[in-house]
């Protein structure tokens, strides 16, 4: 596989995504086949890589956004998006105007919001709920939304407010900002067709029955058999995925939803990590990814290693890499921002 694996382009940019350290995650895995259990699917890069390596992948995530990725690119092995599917997103469909009412002008310009309100309604009306094609199209819209936002985040509002007001100097102040902002005010069809091709390239068959689940992680682990378990929980005492992706989650739902942050994001996350490991004792080998954004917060490499060694022989490796947002390279890693992996294999 090439250094920059092209099938990762099918995935949406994702806060905390692991595609840049994927080889570090797998480099100590000595078992070449079997069942790979991904307890926190997240952005999907680890499960996709495991699928390509020839494992039967059983993955899980309670978030609908992640479940859609798993259905479209891990469980799905042959169905792809057709041009006619994309065309259906423009078919005028009755909708509540939820995105336009709630996210203009801070998050979306009006025309883009109107398109998305229609597109999400068309998705629900024209594609069988629960089908592979339904989740492929949901992934397409997720990638489209992410592609119109700076760093795929929803907290940068000045650019969008200026664009909605017809002011272009600030939004186009640099090449990096201009590329996303141009998508925001352009007709969506060319970009959707480009994204369709990227997603379709990520659909492949490894001739195994891969599965994705949407369960509480403790319930999932207790009922799932496997050979290797990979854990990539949210970083303790840090910004939660539920906060980072609240706007997107509401767009997917078509309404304001209750935000329930993961227990793994809390200051007392050690209790839940310990419970997680106890739920996975029947799976022989573990890989655990974690990190700290501040040396005074979260769980240190030494602390996590001690937790795992309560159950298994293990060691830890602190990674040298560049910090990123949504897999977009940023500043060099600082002393207070570390990524590390605990291995029991």
Furnish the topology, listing elements before pairings.
Elements: H1 22-26, E1 35-38, H2 45-52, E2 56-60, H3 64-75, H4 83-88, H5 98-103, H6 110-126, H7 132-147, H8 158-164, H9 175-185, H10 188-201, E3 211-213, H11 217-223, E4 228-231, H12 241-244, H13 246-253, H14 269-279, E5 285-292, H15 301-309, E6 315-319, E7 322-325, E8 328-332, E9 338-343
Parallel strand pairs: 1-2, 1-4, 2-3, 4-5
Antiparallel strand pairs: 5-9, 6-9, 7-8
Helix pairs in contact: 3-7, 6-7, 7-10
Structural features, described:
The chain is of the alpha/beta class and 345 residues long. 41% of the residues lie in helices and 13% in strands. The chain has 15 helices and nine strands. The strands form two sheets. It has a seven-stranded mixed β-sheet, with helices on both faces. Helix 2 links the parallel strand 1 and strand 2. The radius of gyration is 20 Å and the shape is globular.
Helix content: 40-55%
**Biggest sheet details:** 7 strands, mixed
Poorly predicted ranges (pLDDT <50, ≥5 residues)? Answer: 322-334
What is the radius of gyration computed over CA atoms, rounded to a whole number of angstroms? 20 Å
How would you sum up the global shape? globular
Please state the average pLDDT score. Answer: 92
- The total of beta strands comes to 9
Counting helices, strands and paired strands, the structural category is alpha/beta
Order of helices and strands: HEHEHHHHHHHHEHEHHHEHEEEE
What share of residues are in beta strands?
5-15%
- Please count the helical segments: 15
Widest sheet: strand order?
3-2-1-4-5-9-6
State the end-to-end distance. Answer: 23 Å
